[in-house]
């Protein structure tokens, strides 16, 4: 199964908003509301930022939001801060009862 | 507090075998869904195995037939047995807890253990 499609990189200035897309198929992103997003800083383990398309775990800033339309999910970070810089991965549950990761997006805060 | 601590990584020759361990605390492995996810140097995350609380296990084609996943409830530990290792299996291996049941996401991750397959 091919990875979900994410842009390789995005960038933004402090205070701006950015959006990262995650495109799959009817068998994963489009078929279930089980898309999650993970932030990873260099040398660290991933951390869940969004689950079930748009839910935020306790402790995650409300600057992070998620949405989905058809086979594409999106992560939006508003009020960009330097600490948001890192890699972001989407994941979806699939019709084979397994998870599928996106290829990852490197966010640079200019 | 939930914690996952991986161990067992190291340098192994191609064709060799290695068993990774993931010691859990703050919850019991028997009642949870657990997974191994790897990350090759400079690359993205790749799911490599999952064991559901009912015992069902799944693997992607890249490791199917070579890797197996199991848990020891008495030791509260998750394992990944890796056989016939290849250079492309070189990666940091993370264990992660999966939340399922009208939801699906990885809520806790270990710090990872590095496996290097090289002669």
Summarize it.
By secondary structure, chain A is mostly beta strands.
Question: How would you describe this structure in keywords?
Answer:
heterodimer, A: 110 residues, mainly beta, 6-stranded mixed β-sheet, 3-stranded antiparallel β-sheet, 9 strands, globular, B: 119 residues, 7-stranded mixed β-sheet, 11 strands, 0% helix
Structural write-up:
The complex is a heterodimer of chains A (110) and B (119). Chain A is an all-beta fold and 110 residues long. Chain A has no helices and nine strands. Chain A has strands at 9-12, 18-23, 35-40, 47-50, 64-69, 72-77, 86-93, 99-101, 105-109. In chain A, strands 1, 3, 4, 7, 8 and 9 form a six-stranded mixed sheet that branches. A three-stranded antiparallel sheet of chain A has the order 2-6-5, with no helix packed on it. Chain A is globular. The model of chain A has no long low-confidence stretch (mean pLDDT 97). Chain B has 119 residues and is mainly beta. Chain B is built from no helices and eleven strands. In chain B, the strands form two sheets. In chain B, strands 2, 4, 5, 6, 9, 10 and 11 form a seven-stranded mixed sheet that branches. A four-stranded antiparallel sheet of chain B has the order 1-3-8-7, with no helix packed on it. In chain B, a hairpin with a 5-residue loop joins β5 and β6. Chain B is globular, with a radius of gyration of 14 Å. The N and C termini of chain B lie far apart (40 Å). In chain B, 37% of the residues are buried. The mean pLDDT of chain B is 96. Classes of the chains: A mainly beta (110), B mainly beta (119).
